Amino acid sequence: MRQGGSGGDGVSPGNVPVCYYGAGGRVSASLERRVRAAEVLLRCAACALAVLAAALLGADRQSRTFFSIQKVARYTDMQSLVILVIASGMVACYSLLQGARCLVSIVRGGILLSRPLAWAIFSCDQVMAYEIIGAVAVAMEAALLGKTGEVEFQWMKTCELYQRFCTQAGGGVACAVAASASMVGIALVSAFNLFRLYGHGKGSSK
After folding, report:
1. What broad class describes the main subcellular location of this protein (predicted)?
2. Dihedral, 64, 65, 66, 70 alpha carbons, nearest 10
3. Other beta carbons less than 10 A from residue 40's beta carbon
4. At 63, phi and psi to the nearest 5?
5. Cα dihedral sign for 163, 165, 168, 171?
């Protein structure tokens, strides 16, 4: 997009929506389309995987009877799984909203980004990516302890008692891992969308 006042291609002052693509812009139209398609795909994947992870963990339960006493294993028995369910829900809702924004921009035939908006999207994507990655790391550590136990602390291998529960929980954690990978990809795309708005001054005139 060509900015007036100084001649040639300029940089948005930060409060003007800009779209950098085409012969005189920052990226080609074909690259712009690929970036937008990748962003929509990643956001839809993150949303679907996060919903699946939350559903698998939320519905996970198994009952066992020990000496006429019935014990039910639920995801709420492990704080790490509760955190992962909450984080997955937040990522799913956020990805759904951002995916809708991307689809609207595609339907309207252009992607308009000002620097403040690009910074806001970039920051939110970073926060969500770190959030789901942290929740997955904690859940995987708890899952490992449930699988192998800890002799020094006399923690038994609970997965030997609740095999079906652990299997379904493992599937939920695996979906969350895939969702976190999608969020990392989204964070990279939003970083590209942000930093291409900079550095179009002196270097491009040489």
Report:
1. membrane
2. 100
3. 19
4. -110, 140
5. negative
Q: What is the pLDDT of residue 45?
A: 95
Q: Would you tell me how many other CB atoms lie within 10 Å of the CB of residue 24?
A: 10
Domain boundaries, the chain: 29-64+71-199
Tens-digit pLDDT profile for residues 41-99 = 999 999 999 999 999 998 888 777 667 777 777 888 888 999 999 999 999 999 999 99
**CATH architecture designation of domain 29-64+71-199:** Up-down Bundle (1.20)
Which residue in the block uniquely carries the two structure tokens 């937040």? 90
14 by DSSP, 3-state: which?
A: coil
92 within 8 A of 45, measured Cβ to Cβ: no
Q: Between the CA of residue 109 and those of 20, 190, 194, what are the distances in Å?
A: 13, 19, 19
Structure token pair of residue 31: 């690259």
Q: How many other CB atoms are there within 10 angstroms of residue 141's CB atom?
A: 11
- The residue with tokens 């990516």 is 129
Q: Would you call 65 helix, strand, or coil by DSSP?
A: strand
Question: Alpha-carbon distance 45 to 85, whole Å?
Answer: 17
DSSP secondary structure letters along 87-115: HHHHHHHHHHHHHHHHHHHHHTT---B-H
Q: Six-digit token pair at 107?
A: 């339907």
Q: What is the pTM of this model?
A: 0.76
In angstroms, the CA 20 to CA 203 distance is 16
